[in-house]
Design a protein that fits this description.
Rossmann fold; 9 strands; four-stranded parallel β-sheet; 2 domains
């Protein structure tokens, strides 16, 4: 499309998502005594998979709470790692609030999917690698959910290579952080169902990612469901790699703005590949 475009393939991570980075870093930074009591988390799936994998590797007891409508395939993958999983709430924000309550009552550490400096720092290692791997990087397109990924990557880039433009991409059906940034504060944003399940839901009150996003995100873009599906089919068809809806959001965001990035070096973070078989069939059918 007239640009030098690179794909950062977090869809090939061991858990099929970048979330393993933050989850592992957060768990390793806990004091040993705290780790021994176990951890609790809330997740629509990918963060839960990351926590389950890290907990299994480190021998840490863990419990994962997911929304009632969480993808069955991701939930089953967590169970296969031997980590208990419970469905609570009809929205990611409600699930997080409940999980925090359980963590407090049981004296266990709560590992936020995004609202944690250690989580954000772990995700930021993607930015470090992109600067090392892509000479002359001009811009990076990243999907935004709670903001943990773009906060970590953006904070690193603005510290090391401040000229790199950071573009946040959101599904129009669930534009929580996009609308919060527009409003200049965290607000309650109505969210509908989206192919980008990993970015769905609201922004937790007091989330540290909001202030970071306000500082490091240069612009945001909204993409529709049809464009997300088209982007997923494009990557599958041309690169023969599976990506999930959230990764499709970043690709669709670039495609929407491609004419503005002619002759520039662009990175797109393919944040994950965890898409259910039924959903994949629908997407491929067009």
């Amino acid at each position: 499309m007239g640009s030098n475009v690179w794909l950062k393939c977090e869809n090939l991570q061991v858990t099929g998502s970048f979330k393993i980075r933050g989850a592992t870093n957060a768990m390793l930074t806990l004091p040993a005594e705290t780790r021994s009591r176990g951890v609790v988390t809330a997740s629509s799936g990918n963060h839960g998979l990351g926590v389950a994998r890290a907990a299994t590797q480190l021998g840490v007891p863990a419990t994962v709470f997911v929304p009632n409508d969480a993808d069955d395939g991701k939930a089953e993958a967590i169970r296969r790692m031997g980590v208990p999983i419970e469905r609570v709430g009809d929205d990611c924000l409600h699930t997080e609030q409940y999980a925090r309550l359980i963590a407090d009552k049981s004296g266990r550490a709560y590992l936020s999917p995004y609202n944690d400096p250690a989580i954000i720092a772990g995700q930021g290692t993607i930015g470090l690698e992109m600067v090392e791997q892509i000479p002359g990087l001009d811009a990076v397109f990243i999907a935004i959910g709670g903001g943990g990924l773009i906060s970590g990557v953006g904070a690193y880039l603005k510290a090391i290579a401040p000229s790199v433009e950071v573009i946040g991409c959101s599904p129009a059906a669930s534009p929580a952080m996009h609308r919060c940034l527009e409003a200049g504060k965290i607000i309650d944003v109505p969210c509908r169902a989206t192919l980008s399940g990993a970015t769905a839901g609201g922004v937790e009150p007091g989330a540290i990612t909001f202030d970071i996003c306000r500082d490091v995100v240069d612009r945001t873009v909204l993409v529709g469901e049809a464009h997300i599906a088209d982007a997923m089919r494009h990557i599958i068809g041309t690169h023969h790699m599976l990506i999930e809806g959230a990764a499709g959001v970043a690709v669709a965001g670039y495609q929407q703005l491609a004419s503005e990035y002619q002759n520039k070096t662009v990175g797109i973070v393919l944040c994950g590949a965890n898409v259910s078989t039924p959903e994949l069939r629908k997407i491929l059918a067009g």
